[in-house]
Amino acid sequence: MRKPTRPEHLYVDFDGFFASCEEQANPRLYGCPIGVVPFEDARNSCVIASNPKAKKFGVRTGVAIDEARRLCPQLVLVPQRPDLYVRTQQRVVAAVLSVLPIDVVCSIDELAAVLERGDCPEDVAGRIKRRVREAVGKRITCSIGCAPNRWLAKIAADIDKPDGLTVLRPGDLPGRLLEIGLEDLPGVGRRMRARLERAGLSTVGDLWNDSPGRLRSIWGNVAGARFWYALHGYAVEPPPTRRSSIGHGRVLPPEQRGVPAAREPARQLVVKAARRLRREGFLSRRLTLSADGFDGPVWKASITIARAANDDRTCLGALGVLWTGLAAAKPRAVLFRIMVSFDRFVPSGAAQLELPFGEPDTWRDKAKSLSAAVDAINNRYGRTVVGYGQCGGPGGYSGAKIAFGRIPDWEDFW
């Protein structure tokens, strides 16, 4: 395995991106600690993003509103505007592209690039920060990491936040890696950390001084050895990924937290997810519905879609079966969040005909044609003018909620 002799990868992580976008867009918020909330008047909810100033008080993602106000009495709460964040992200990407090619946009607030031989990491990082400041505004800051591989560059970008720069050169490793905890390493979650500690590995230094063979045995597969080589600065490329699910979720406003009232936003989420299935060329064989309360999961179930589908009628029918189960099992539940997810994909052209002898499913074919017609009308006008049931609703942005791992398509805002 090749071991680079210089930093070859650069990783850009924007600081408190959503809250910083709000600050940049509204001069009255300049210098204020900001918490982004799911909707206006978000009582009994939580902060879904915060800017660096709010984070200094301990206001982070997932902190309840009451606790956030206790930690930071001067906190300014603003309802989310995902369309603003997507527009800002597009300007940010253009600014970075003016300095060097982007290898991959990892999420709405993170991207990675490859440094060319002869590039000075500090110089390139400085130019990126200046271009973002000039093109987008000084309230949008980023932390940048440079390292021999992308995984280490991502770690480096998180070491000096906010507005930091950390360069990990091969000859200096482990260097500043010894300053961070196991939980700061991508791929080490709560369960893996417990497994490592049971094996006597409680620090990054312990991992560094171990062997790839032992880490492979702890992980139970080759990922452990890959982890060791990546940590030591080898040119380990991330394994290829493919989409395994498409879904949406939303925090419910107070008036929709009962089971009957939550059904309409669940329908909206299913329609949005089905629209994405069609755009990306997938049929799905399974729909999962999850309902969470303030203290954790309330109910979760899946239904198999007998003949893989992506049309609204069939998908809403599957949701109807699941919702009947939720209403029967938890009729008086107070819901905080609902989520829907499609998985077990097949390509759109690969659906099997049902017996006998492959006769067409007339209703299914009509439903597919109807969904295609609805999509064509909405695409023509750039908004939802035809749909199943109510469009929009309290909180807005159904299907276009903040998603760190996915940048919403413009169609998600219709």
Report on this model:
This protein has 13 helices and twelve strands. It has helices spanning 17-25, 52-55, 65-71, 82-97, 121-135, 150-157, 190-198, 204-209, 212-219, 223-231, 259-280, 312-329, 362-381; strands spanning 9-14, 34-37, 49-50, 76-79, 104-107, 110-114, 142-147, 165-167, 245-251, 282-293, 296-309, 337-347. Helix 9 packs across helix 10. The strands form three sheets. A five-stranded mixed beta sheet has the order 5-6-1-7-8. It has a four-stranded antiparallel beta sheet with strand order 9-12-10-11, covered by helices on one side. Helices cover 36% and strands 19% of the residues. Strand 5 and strand 6 form a beta hairpin. The chain is an alpha+beta fold and 414 residues long.
The ordered H/E elements are EHEEHHEHEEHEHEHHHHEHEEHEH
Biggest beta-sheet profile: 5 strands, mixed
Number of helices: 13
Q: Strand content of the residues, in percent?
A: 15-25%
The low-confidence parts are 353-359
Shape: globular
Question: How many DSSP E strands?
Answer: 12
Strand arrangement, major sheet = 5-6-1-7-8
The portion of residues assigned to helices is: 25-40%
Q: How far do the termini sit from each other?
A: 48 Å
**Main structural class:** alpha+beta
* Gyration radius, rounded: 24 Å
User: Could you tell me the mean pLDDT?
Assistant: 87
Please summarize what this structure is.
The protein has 13 helices and 12 strands. The chain is of the alpha+beta class and 414 residues long.
Write the layout of secondary structure elements.
Blueprint: E1 9-14, H1 17-25, E2 34-37, E3 49-50, H2 52-55, H3 65-71, E4 76-79, H4 82-97, E5 104-107, E6 110-114, H5 121-135, E7 142-147, H6 150-157, E8 165-167, H7 190-198, H8 204-209, H9 212-219, H10 223-231, E9 245-251, H11 259-280, E10 282-293, E11 296-309, H12 312-329, E12 337-347, H13 362-381
Parallel strand pairs: 2-4, 7-8
Antiparallel strand pairs: 1-6, 1-7, 2-3, 5-6, 9-12, 10-11, 10-12
